[in-house]
């Protein structure tokens, strides 16, 4: 396995996880990469490691350019195990290395995971001279763990951005201009929605700092490296972190016997008839991590569930729980569903939508058993009135 030179003396030495399809509950249909970068300078520096189980691949790629024992610094931009899992193996292979981490949270987090190693904590603005290059550290707390930081090399105008700007996308290509940009952007959007969205305020603050740097390259810890389409990904992050979609709708439901499904289709049609772009998702067929990216660009969210044993459907509950955690802002929402007798699910869905902080823009829509033509007509009129 070979290293890929991304700039003179700077190599990608990460691992490609072609087969992973579930990353802590997030579907990764295109696999993933764990990116690590090796800088050859007076002090040999490794930026991030890889997930445990891929340390052999990391060591093989490093060995393609240098004896790993010569590494002086291992920079750990983020404690999470997809970036630090190979740290124990690296410490064994590079006995003289100092581990650079953020202060205080990186130090605390790495110590909790790996015990007492040779750590050197850094604060925002601290720099490390490694020879003809300097590396400057900027902590980015809660983007998306307390310990996160990014590493900037001013001489190369490269930002090693860790999870920011990443995508779960296994490819043999390393750069944005070597692969299909639409796919990279789709995966970047999915990554932002599932991992970063709940920290939109921090993302917007980080965006302002990164924007000033005039970068040649953004080298994240997952997926392809941005060099030809930096503006495209920066513009998308600005839009997503603003969290203020102007239009668009999505209808998300589960259904046992198709009544709630009929209501969902009617609601979707009503949005479309009003010229509002709409997406319809059946939670039986689409995983929640594939639905949430759509929320980034949509203002209206309608969620439907029939009543099952006095409750909403478990898939709907899981979706709403996930959504609440991701906390999209400035959305309008309403609940709907079919029921047999008590019909508690629809109120439960509405309560959860309120708990998400959404404005309830329509009274909950309830239909007893199978919707009749008049019920569906009434639903259409209710939704259309939103735009009168
Ligand atoms: C296993 C089961 C449990 C149900 N429990 C309730 C219930 O507790 N309260 C209620 O109002 N309706 C209950 N129902 C009735 C459904 O909510 C009703 O049939 C509804 O029309 C189903 O909508 P759907 O076609 O979208 O699945 C239950 C139905 C089934 C199959």
UniProtKB/TrEMBL annotation:
CDD domains reported in the protein's UniProt record: flavodiiron_proteins_MBL-fold
Domain Flavodoxin-like: 249-387
Gene3D superfamilies, per the entry: 3.40.50.360, Ribonuclease Z/Hydroxyacylglutathione hydrolase-like
Classification via Pfam families: Flavodoxin_1, ODP
Matches recorded under InterPro entries: Flavodoxin/NO_synth, Flavoprotein-like_sf, Metallo-B-lactamas, ODP_dom, RibonucZ/Hydroxyglut_hydro, Rubredoxin-O_OxRdtase
Highest rank taxon of the organism: Bacteria
GO molecular function ontology, one term from the record: electron transfer activity
Family: In the N-terminal section; belongs to the zinc metallo-hydrolase group 3 family.
Name under which the protein is recorded: Flavorubredoxin
Organism of derivation: Enterocloster lavalensis
